User: Fold these one by one.
Assistant:
Number 1:
Amino acid sequence: MTPPGNGAVEVNSLVKRYGTATAVNGLTLSAARGAVTALLGPNGAGKTTTIEICEGFRRADAGTVRVLGLDPVADARALKPRVGVMPQSGGVPGTARAGEFLRLVASFHSSPLDPDALLARLGLTEHARTPFRRMSGGQQQRLSLAVAVVGRPELVFLDEPTTGLDPQARHATWELIEELRAAGVSVVLTTHNMEEAERLADRVVIVDHGAVVADGAPAELTGAERQLRFRARPGLGLEELLSALPAGSAAKESPAGHYLIEADVRPELLATVTAWCASHGVMTEDLRIERRTLEDVFLELTGRELRS
Amino acid sequence: MTTAPGAPGAAPAAAPLDLAPAPGAVPLPRMILAQTAYELRTLLRNGEQLLLTLVIPVVLLTLFSTTSLLDLGSGRRVDFLAPGVLALAVMSTAFTGQAIGTGFERRYGVLKRLGATPLPRVGLIAAKTLTVVAVEVLQAAVISAVALALGWHPHGDPLSVLVLLLLGTAAFSGFGLLMAGTLRAEATLAAANLVYILLLAVGGVVFPLDKFPGGVRSALELLPISALADGLRDVLRDGAAFPGGPLLVLAVWAVAGLALAARFFRWE
């Protein structure tokens, strides 16, 4: 573990207001060097604002931010060559050709990656001469990722790197992020994609209403709790089943014919449930025991109501 | 998918990427040159820009020199028109083109994006200025060649011409960037084109200002385009050195434009 205060990014009690709205409300997080840290949260949770303050685009109203030990605004000149940034969208002139813009940014750096090799790697070789505005959303995203890493940074900020990508492009992006991590680059990304966070992140920080609501490795967040799911004919007497289970268990049918038992799942519990089904002439299908997913944790912590 | 290193006949795999951190920026002048070359390339590829910077000035110059559609007073027509069209060329590049281009770059987050690269803002401004100057050199060469072919006989002091052009460029750049950095991109597009047409009409570019009534004329002479066109005419047609009135007017516009742009420009 990285000792506290020595991470790639250290954010302490960060506050940012826009007029009367508070976008970030006392957020504290630490992103370890050489690790992938994922910020997860509903729309409007304050993820992008936090990242943009770390990138030096916005100033904090209160709290401290240190990026590679430096102040993102005061030490901007020293930080820019060391930090790669992929914004949520756009940022490339509509008339610029993909290869041309990537080469431009590469030319600002002293030992950049080969732009052509990077384009090839991200499947963009055929589009090297395509103007940015004529590229598909997924191609624009990949070019934006290429621009973020071409300078061989120590730290990259990726704001929703796979939103709008098809599965092939998403996997190519994931592989590149895994290689960055293997090469010792620190990665801070935001995402809505739970699979992405579970697969890539060493540490997941769940943000809501401008503050951290949970923070840990994916396995720590999903915990050891298990649950039992099965399908059977609709309308089983769940209260009778529950009376046979240990206290504190819960059972529900949603949608009809799909059953979920939340309990301390042990071999005895499994035997009790199957025995109860057998005694009632119930044939179960798709019986399975699973861990909570990150999505379950996320919805539990941030609620189910829709965000703007 | 693995092949022995250097195995003959193996399909060329994508070159491996060495992603290990190796950060560092090249010296500022190299960044500025790279950005300038990039801006020039994209600009010269843009048909609308070429129309604005080259086609319109050359057409106006040729059309009104070779026909008597306009009453240009006594004297050779091309000697009146060439300085005015040079002034128009400066306005089209430093003001109209720069306002529209920068306005859309701001709107599409390009300025912000470049702000995340090692190129500092002062470097970006330097590159934009160099780009404007390079385009103006190209415009001056083409316009002068056409004018000379039409029988133009320029007089006067080259240094005075240079100072007028530089002050004019500074004034128009200041207001172009002020517009780009404060208005929405669509508003900038409309307003920059409108200003271009209005100043073309009333700024003494091709229509002589002495056709306007006295009071109106005195007011129009305070416009930056009139000051630049009149100043260039004083030197190139009449052989004056350092025309004080136009230089003063341009200097005031330049200081005001650049100060307002520095104060109010918003990068995003």
Number 2:
Amino acid sequence: MSSHSTDQAAPAILAEVRPASIPRRELVENHRDFHWITEKICGIVEGKTPTWWWWCFGAAAFVASFTVSGLIYLVSTGVGVWGHANPVNWAWDIVNFVFWIGIGHAGTLISAILCLLRQKWRTSINRPAEAMTIFAVVCAAIFPVFHVGRIWFAVMPGYLFPFPNSNGIWQNFRSPLEWDVFAVSTYGTVSVLFWYIGLIPDLGTLRDRFTSTGNIVKARIYGFFAMGWRGSNRQWSNYEMAYLILAGIATPLVLSVHTIVSFDFAVSLIPGWHTTIFPPYFVAGAIFSGFGMVLTLMLPLRAIYRLEDVITQYHIDCMCKITLATGTMVGYAYSMEFFIAWYGANPYEGFAFINRAFGHYAWAYWIMITCNVITPQFFWFKSVRENTTLVWILCIFVNVGMWFERFVIIVTSLARDFLPSSWGYYSPSIVEIFTFFGTFGVFSFLFLLFIRFLPIMPMSEIKMVIPAADPHGADHH
Amino acid sequence: MSKIFPKSANALPLQIVIFLFVLGGVAAAGITYYATPAYLRVGYQPVQPVPFDHSLHAGQLGIDCRYCHASVEKSATSSVPAAQTCMNCHSVIKTTSPLLEVVRESYKTGDPVPWVKIHQAPDYVYFNHSVHVNRGVSCVECHGKVNEMTAVYHAKSHSMSFCLNCHRNPATFIRDPQDVFNLDSKTLAEQGRLADAQKFVHDWKVKPPQSCSGCHR
């Protein structure tokens, strides 16, 4: 930047823009240096397995066994063990699918969109958020695959994936359910790649540290996955480019995946589903629920591993504000649905919404409104955002509310469609309840393995955002 | 830094990628070829309790299919004959043949001959014989040249694509209705009378369903 003489009055139109320097809050507090970051993150992997980890791991495995046994029972008996029946043929299975896939969106938003927008605060939270995304996709995928009952059809050529087959059938590419297969599988693949590419430099660090301490077995395992990372300039340059390209690929996925999930409903003709607001409304809801889950996971992690210096109050503020923004968007969408139901003057649509708020499932509707519209409004207050316990409790409400949102949308519309003769009431079976409950075990099981064996934060990226990475200061050349 | 991998490990990523591609290709090709009714069903020829010879009865003697499979024109199923049908002739022909002992036993007791079923339509498939044979679809289209089989075997795949092949283009497979039970006859298309076949399809309202619920009711 060329220097300007200061003794003249500045002209009304400057020759070039001179951005004001706005002091940003420190992303790593207490002036922690490179060494501290490495020791902190690697120490979690290298240290002895904590007792609490074993207890949590055992509990998670036990809860996960509910899902496993529920699914075994389903496959061996038939899909009738779930409570679906006419007219509600989509119920908890699709509710749970949308719930879990929505949670994943925060991870992709943090890793892709915030990366492209150069939001530096993403660095401390992107790794666990991406892990959350992948594990949430795993939990989500269980439900659509198993709700077909005879799951071997899901992998047979010609059913989900287009492949020549002896049934002479081909996918209906006009069906959003088929788009969903591609949306979710692409999403899963890109998320795994993104996560893995980001892990490579840190796996190289762990490999080198295990090599120097003589733990050759672990060095080999981490070394295998580090794929020969040496940290050379050329590798860093390729790495940065690969990461940027993947961020570019993943960015549209943040919007497309839940848009297509919403098409599963919006493209049908059921009152309450057949609305054009669904895609943006679902995406906002997905990011809302995802940030709720990120905070639910990050706050205990921060407390247990004493990570206050890298997950600072600034990070929590940022996440709370996104939760507030998306939660308010969701609230707007709820009211706009009602407005359009009245303004559209379609009696079925009007009935569907009045039925949601005051019908048989009104209890679910008001749980949804309380959790999703009222809860995030507390984040307007700084004192609330700074009370981590309260933030965590509010985020639990967000998680609950977003599950109920999907329940309300799916079940109320199906239970009361056009013909009163085909009305019904749906209650889940015990198998369904346990299968869903167990997915929290599956998720925790995977997440606990992640925090025990992988670097929970991208060391290299955190080092890039501390002042030591920029010793001369970006503004003074 | 001590070395933890041999130099050959440098080629490992490429080798793994190639291996996965080859594995995927082999698996896809294998499933496409082997996991099909055309491979798994065709040629199934179980040993029957009575070595009934279709090539002798339907071929040399020229007995009409409907003499034994009497309900084929009227019902969804093509009936397997009771021992009484066999005994119409065998009460006077080869009355002491040991090969026919099972038939005579069935005739006396009324217990059916334990034939082994060869062509098994799955429970989730609705198939009606009468609607096919009354619209010019010959036995031979699905069962092959039974009149030349010493022991019956599964001649055609009976896969869904096999059904759809005809359902999507019935005129190519239709015979003159009087040729339906003549397994040596040719389809109208084979006789160069495709226009007649198309007229038949139109006049006789041959509208084979292609929707899922046409067969999976």
